[in-house]
């Protein structure tokens, strides 16, 4: 009965966005949801996305028909190439099965559903290990489908970098054949990524323990400005012969947030019957997809696919990615140098060491609250800031506000 439904808390990120909107201070600063803003604090439609949109609008054949259940093939095939590299043996050996999804969240969900149904040992689901901390939505997506979750240490509060020893020892001591969720690049919420050498060690542990890697990638090209570099960890794992899955979002790197464009990829391990395994997996993914969303939305998929399939537009997209990542890197430098200039107590090197959309500042929940009450600055209570919310107009205001709350 309806009165047995308890009140749930508001989503912390979208609640923050609502509170920011309702604030009428002219000084307010939005460092909440991870969405790119230009130097005027405005959403940025990528110029290459405008061009792709023109292509759709000028196509006399364009219509609003259903896509196939697995989505737009011209997108999913290029999306897999983008992740794995064009010459990847996984692709030529037909070991990859790809499905277009409702952005990254939909991809994580489809993967969760698939593993809940098919990845069992003695009839029971395996535990999935999440980094501590991780994107808050991960927890509920996996628990909604009945996959038990646990945590591995990730963020070292002292160095504001990676707790590599803690991470390794938890993964090495987890039961064999656990599932391990890994952020491919630009870790959300910390902005802390393993180095290539550390990725190799992580892969060796997962291999030794027969763990199942589940990659989440929402920032390819957005993190460093280099698409290949940001796919480095995934490519290394695939080269090592893992069976794995990847959730891929095009929200951030195409600025297609509300269009919900993304893909889920299953990669089989190299084996003589790998292509058959992949075909069977694809057939099951199609059933799951059909019952969940029938078929995915067309507009964002067309935009991304037009760009990925046209060499000139692809080159322009890389330019746009460098514009976004470059502005964020310059804001990291500006924030760090303002704080150092002010002599704000503490070390601030992590602001420039971290990468991608977010910085985990190390500010306490109380300091975060004070920033909101006294300065109209909005950020999640774990101290995460969306770097894209900073610009040449507000970075000094933010630095001075941080200086004030750190001293008080
Ligand atoms: C974020 O973490 O802010 C973004 O990934 C947006 C979201 O959906 O939570």
From TrEMBL:
Pfam families cross-referenced by the UniProt entry: Aminotran_1_2
Top EC class for this record: transferase
InterPro entries (alphabetical): Aminotransferase_I/II_large, Asp_trans, NHTrfase_class1_PyrdxlP-BS, PyrdxlP-dep_Trfase, PyrdxlP-dep_Trfase_major, PyrdxlP-dep_Trfase_small
Cofactor: pyridoxal 5'-phosphate
Record has Chloroplast as a keyword: no
Every Aminotransferase class I/classII large domain range: 27-401
One GO CC term on file: cytosol
Domain of life: Eukaryota
One Gene Ontology term of the molecular function aspect: pyridoxal phosphate binding
General remark: In eukaryotes there are cytoplasmic, mitochondrial and chloroplastic isozymes.
Protein name listed in UniProt: Aspartate aminotransferase
Biological source species: Podospora fimiseda
Lineage: Eukaryota, Fungi, Dikarya, Ascomycota, Pezizomycotina
